[in-house]
Amino acid sequence: MKNHHFSHVDLESAARMVMLEHGFEPEFPDGVAAELERLQTQPPALPVPGAVKDLRGLLWSSIDNDSSRDLDQIEYAEKLPGGGARVLIAIADVDVYAARDTAMDQHAAKETTSVYTGVRVFPMLPEELSTNITSLLPEQDRHSIVIEFNVSDEGMVEGGQVYRALTRNKAKLAYNSTGAWLEGRGEAPHPLAHNSALQGQLRLQGRTALALRAERFRHGALNIESAETHPVMEGEEIVDVVRQEKNEATELIEDFMVAANGVVARLLHDVSSIRRVVKTPQRWGRIVELAGRMGEHLPAEADPRALNGFLLKRKKADPERFPDLSLAIIKLMGPGEYVLERPGDPEEGHFGLAVQDYTHSTAPNRRFADLVTQRLLKALMDRTPAPYSDDDLGQIAAKCTLMENMARKVEREMNKRIAAVAMRNRIGEVFPAIATGVNEHGTFVRIARPHVEGMLVTGHAGIDVGDHLRVRLVSTDVQRGFLDFARV
User: Which domains does the chain have, with CATH numbers?
Assistant: First the structure.
């Protein structure tokens, strides 16, 4: 891959260095190239036509980031005669090409996740596979695992099954343009502009997702906005850092994926599997304190429904600062983790989503846990022995949690370097900020515009996560990714 020297700083080389420092292997081992060559000359045995459904005629579409090429899922919905909709989520059949114990599978098991550094993607699986052979690219026939379920008009998920299918993506859509169109803020993007049937399909998906979302909120799912950011470029210069805004398209995909992952978790209820859990927040008391400062009351015991009611009220009252509040709540809730769940084990659940049955299954090109779950589903469909022992699954879950935490650190360190490049000409300026972290290393704050984070080097006494303050940028260090702020 070609190196670019952004603003005279080789950020791609820096990303590779940070990957190595956090236990990743940025380059694929030699055996992977030989396997990729064999895939071209000796393709794997694919399911025979009679063993898969031919669903290429359905009006499938994908929605992802503008630059995404590793398309793991496509979606389709149709109205049901009695009301509600039938939803189909087709997931790329990655396992058929990246078989267990191959060199690429062993590499994926070590990395466990693709890492997105803002200047380069370090894929878990080779790009020849994840962005081509298995990617659900438009107008390409692909083998998929389909998750099918019904959604009532009230947003209840009913039933659920999985099966193999041959699919064909009819339109590659992007979050920003599709979201603007769904919300009436923009024209229909190119794939939709002259296709009324596809427009109808997306509007049905949007209505179905809205019903799913409302039902999740009724059960206490948290309405939180993520702090995902990306650099803004002018040529090869980083000139800004902006936050990925939620819209109807991003939420549509989120709602469908949450529902699909819940269906998969329930289908695997009687076998050992990997679950994605977010435990009850240990710092619930601080969340209660934050709400109290805003004139709201939360119960002494953690209650996701009450917390979401507070979040919805604050979003309506102060949408401009709601992302700051979301960030504070995310920090205080703590990260999710992967765990082994055996039949009969108590379900730990996902506090943020207010669900008891949840796994990761919809991104097998990007997350190893999803690839493992795909293999478990295949064994269930084929009525064959489980491909992993409980000990295997426990070790995989622990490794996935560890490497996901490491990936967050890599992405955070690279975001800091990118931010230092974007901010190095703004020393002395004053910004409103929110405290995002307080630990043995120091006190950290984030400003909203540009959306960057740094250390509070003076005036940090008495500051805790969620506090609002004004800060002055006093120095930047691009090589180390340091932004230093002083309290004003």
Answer: 11-262 (no CATH), 424-488 (2.40.50.140)
